[in-house]
Amino acid sequence: MNTVNVKKLSIEGFRELLGSYFFIFPAVLIFSVFYIYPFFKIFVLSLQEWNGISLHGQFIGFDNFQEILQDGVWWMSMWHAAYIALIALTFQNALAFALALSCDRDIRMRKFYRVVFYIPPVLSEVVVGLIWQWILYSGMQNGEHVGLLNYFLTKIHMNHLVHGWLSDPKTALTCIAIVHSWKGFGWGFIILLAGLQAIDRQLYEAARVDGAGAFSIFKNVTIPMMIPVFVMVMILTILGSMQVFVLVLSMVSQGLVYHTEVPVTRILTSMTDTSRFGYACAQGIVFGLILMFFSFTLNKVSKSFKQE
Amino acid sequence: MFPNQYKVAKMFVSILTHIFLMAVAATCLFPLMWMVRSSLMTNDTIFVDKSLIPKAIHFENYYLAWTNGNFGIYLFNSVVYTASVVFGIVLVSSLAAYAFSRLKFPGKNFLFYMFLAAMMIPLPGSFVPLYVLMSKLHLVNTRMGYILCMINVGLSLSIYMLKTFFDKMPSALEDAARMDGCSKVGIWLHVALPLARPAIAVIVIFNTLNVWNEYILATLLLNDQSLMPLQRGLMVFQGSHSVDYPLLMAGLSITVLPVVLVYLFMQKHIIEGLSAGAIAG
Amino acid sequence: MKKMFLTAVSLFFLITGCSSSTKQASTISIWHWMTDRQEAFVKLAEQYEQQTGIKVKFELYAPSDIYSRKIIAAAQARVLPDIFGVLGEKKKLVAFVENGFVADLTEEFQNDDAAWEKSLFEKALDVNRFEENNIYKIKPGIYGVPIDVTNIQMLYNQTLLAKAGVKVPPSTFSEFLDVAMALKRLGIDGLVSGWGEVWMIDCFASNYAFNIMGEEKVMATYRGEVPYTDEDWIKVFNIFKTLRDKKALVDGIVTKGNKYAEQDFALERAAFAFNGSWCVNVYDKMNPDLHYGAMLPPRINMERPMQIWGGAGSSFVVNGMAKNKPMVIAFLKWLTAKEQQAFLARETKNLPSNREALSNIPQVLSEFASSMDMTTHPSVWKYNEAPLVIEAFDKGIQAIIIGEAEPEEIAAQVQKVKQHEMEKQQRQQ
To answer: Structural domain of residue B191, as residue ranges?
Structure first.
């Protein structure tokens, strides 16, 4: 190594480094206090059998994790969440992207649409739960269907489609997934719209000057520029869908046997109903590790796409 | 291609697009309209009367919701919390995201993945060690404690989003600024931030909604009613067993308004973001 | 611009700098979750301050699941208030007592020839009591103060029953099925209940289990001496199969939380409901014209009585590490005295825990009150089932109701979980 380089490293290089660390210092400080510290505590707890109240838990090593591996209901709940995530990834994001594309251009009333599409995410779960319960209600009163969907189906003479939407295990989860997508597409819409708007208009101009048609522009300019945003929206969708639970509780309560259980409801059951804090913490960690694995895989795959 | 055919096709696509947009918009507006209509009714008619415009309109529900729910002080608190947390998050996360995107230092990747991992590992029982820690730091039942906690809640996602946007930015402007002798902080303040305006707007919208609707952490960390946010006011209408639906709907309608206003203001920045930035330089 | 920023920052620190108020010498802090009663509590607190000069602060943290979390966190940080509540199963109270968070009130109750103890409903006190030789190894005594009582029964809609020509509510299970079928022919649904919340299923099943085989056999099952595949338990599971086959239940009953079930009954979409005495408040608000009454769940086994779940609705405990215990306990004595209880009963339409406070209460509420002698509750039983077994049991019943499984299958499944739990218990000992 050159003596010159060593000198650079010691003074100017050091100041450079310090400057860089200044940027991340506040974030890392807050993060360490409010996340890292509890995380270590949680990790320690996951190795214990603790009821949340006693001063000390009982150390049981990796027993909790072993039990999770054999917990059939847990893996079923993971699959349910994955199903909801799948529907969200396809249905919700396709919708969000279609809407974002439509509003990207200079069409009439786009300002109106931009506001309206943000309403579902803003609504409280209370209202969403009440409304959709009413829409999907499967009972009758005085000869008429109470639920809006079934009522509508009878009015257009499609009685054979009338169904116990939330009471039938085969349709309940799908209904929840659709309501979840409905509530969430507003987010995808904003992020994708921001991404579309961030594409330099000059690139479009240049392509048009080169004689490219609309579809070609879409394929060669829009899509490649949007890939990092797509990946981000996909990862956020997966995370948001896997962690769904308030919606599940407000639509089917704790019910329908295990057909509508999702990981977070299982964790809450461990924490409150059965008072097994340690087990709940272990479930949280396993859940997180799986999500991390998928997210990083997705990231890697998308990076290889970019290089092509 | 005949010009007429082209025009007809274009009009056809345009009409279809509008029908599609209107249909989706209708499903979004329906709950909102139901909420407002229900807020003007009474408990015994709210589920029975299916009409969109109620027969007897009770505007006083809004007044009752405001007073019974003690909205005055709660609204003040919510505004303080939301403004502080959003400001804090924008500041802290934009600094960190810029560093992760543009600067080089050892441990960069590791730290970034750590923030990412935080988004993915929910800590179900974390409220216990968190509370004990806050108690030791004398931050329980203080506004500052709650604000710091909430900044952390939104940090990972904001850093992730901003870094993605910073990565996409062309570095030409930054290089120019650096050659002009601008410091790192200067580049961050005068070049990166303005260029990332759409992304920052998204983060503001996102975190505003999160903090405004947050309730669990507030109930946990705060004891005095005078420090509680708006969601606490709404709880008054949701008794352990009986729910006062009209007042609850009125309360929700009041609560929804500021968030929508913030969105209206911010979404302009998403749209007018880059074109202005790039040209002005 | 810079000036604005500086003023904003200083204002910010001014606002956030205000931290918690300091506690005065004669203040009692109470944390509770009962939203409906906060107003009434505050009024009582003002009265008490006028009478004694002691300030009482009622702080509300709702809903109840978040309240429980706050209590657990505060316990760990040793900052519990003077008076609070321990929600959930008896085991939770055990944990709090074991760790010194809850004070033993037995002495106070037995003062003056047990005056305080005798003024309250025995069933309500039992929920807060630990008997001699209890399995939790807690020193026997009373550890909590009930401030209201409640029980869970069946409700019936008089108007709808009249449509089917029924003037008197059914008293046996087969009568009940006949009525439900008659109603179904008229297009009216039979029974609705919040069976989306598993504890409600547990309550219903438990009532019938006690009726069919008696408390002793149920306790023996919890001890592991009787398997769930026993024919009496199959009879319990069969109840749900019968209800399903005769279509006596509302569609989607296993997805309904209690609030939605209450809506259904109040809006006359079902003729019967299974709910607790708090429902009177809910139904009256939603439908003042509802003509309904309370009845015990109709018996299957006529040789045994029907025992319903009931006892203390809400109870307060005293912080084991409170500074001035006598002062705190004196307030609780006052709160459960006749006048205050009558006031609370009137204001919040709940049943008082003080025997002498039953005065002007609505008709249906008094029907609930009259059944208090027939109540029992898991908190007063000698043994309790393991939570994982309870979950398998309740979810199994849900499966029977939606037609996915038959009683014998479920019985075998539950027994398997029970055996697993027994083995785990033995390993830990």
So the answer is: 68-280
In tens digits, what is the pLDDT along chain B, a chain of 281 residues? 556 777 888 788 888 888 888 888 888 898 888 888 888 888 877 777 667 777 778 888 888 888 888 888 999 999 999 999 999 999 999 989 988 888 888 888 888 888 888 887 777 778 888 898 998 888 888 899 999 999 998 899 899 888 888 887 777 777 777 777 777 777 778 777 887 888 888 889 889 998 998 888 899 899 888 899 988 888 888 876 778 888 888 888 888 888 888 888 887 777 664 443 333 33
Q: Do B131 and C76 touch (CB under 8 A)?
A: yes
Residue C117's closest CA among C144, C84, C96, C90? C144
The CATH number for B242's domain is: 1.10.3720.10
Q: Tell me the domain boundaries of chain C.
A: 26-148+313-380, 151-310+385-428
Residue-wise DSSP of A54-107: SSS-EE-TTHHHHHHHH-HHHHHHHHHHHHHHHHIIIIIHHHHHHHHHHHHS--
* Structural domains counted in chain B: 1
C-alpha C403/C-alpha C409 separation (Å) is 12
pLDDT tens readout for residues A136-170: 888 777 777 778 888 888 888 877 777 778 888 88
Closest by CA to C85, choosing from C76, C72, C98, is C72
By 3-state DSSP, what share of chain C in percent is helix, strand and coil, each rounded to 5? 55, 15, 30
Q: Which of B128, B241, B244, B247 to mutate to test the interface with C (most CBs of C within 10 A)?
A: B241
Specify the pairing of strand A48-49 against strand A58-59: antiparallel
Calpha distance C390→C407 (Å, rounded) = 16
Instruction: Say if the Cβ atoms of B239 and C35 lie within 8 Å.
Output: yes
Transcribe C119-170 into DSSP letters.
HB-HHHHHHTEE-TT-TT-PPSEE--EE--EEEEEEEEEHHHHHHTT--S--
The DSSP call for residue C249 is B
Give me the domains of chain A, ranges plus CATH numbers: 70-307 (1.10.3720.10)
Selecting from A31, A190, A288 the residue whose C-beta is nearest the C-beta of B122 gives A288
CATH domain C151-310+385-428 topology: D-Maltodextrin-Binding Protein; domain 2 (3.40.190)
pLDDT in tens, C21-67: 455 568 899 999 988 888 899 999 999 999 998 999 999 998 888 89
Asked whether C405 and C399 are in contact (CB, 8 A), the reply is yes
CA–CA separation, A185 vs A88, rounded Å? 8
Report whether A263 contacts A287 (CB < 8 A): yes
> How far apart, in whole angstroms, are the C-alpha atoms of residue A281 and residue A43?
7
| SS3 label, residue A274 | coil
The C-alpha atoms of residue A222 and residue A104 are separated, in whole angstroms, by 12
Nearest to C402 among A139, A143, A169 (CB): A169
CA–CA separation, B119 and C15 (whole Å):
31
How many inter-chain contacts (A to B, CB under 8 Å) are there?
225
Residues 6+ apart with CB under 8 A from C50: none
State the fold for domain C26-148+313-380: D-Maltodextrin-Binding Protein; domain 2 (3.40.190)
Q: Is A255 part of the contact surface with chain C (CB cutoff 8 Å)?
A: yes
Nearest chain C Cα distance for residue B11, angstroms: 47
Kindly state the tokens that stand for B210: 């999160």
d(CA A147, CA C250): 14
What's the gap between Cα A171 and its chain centre?
Answer: 21
> Could you tell me if the ipTM is greater than 0.90?
no
The reply to whether C151-310+385-428 shares the fold of C26-148+313-380 is yes
Q: Which of C64, C199, C202, C255 to mutate to test the interface with A (most CBs of A within 10 A)?
A: C255
| Calpha distance A250→A273 (Å, rounded) | 18
Q: Tell me whether residue B59 is in a domain.
A: no
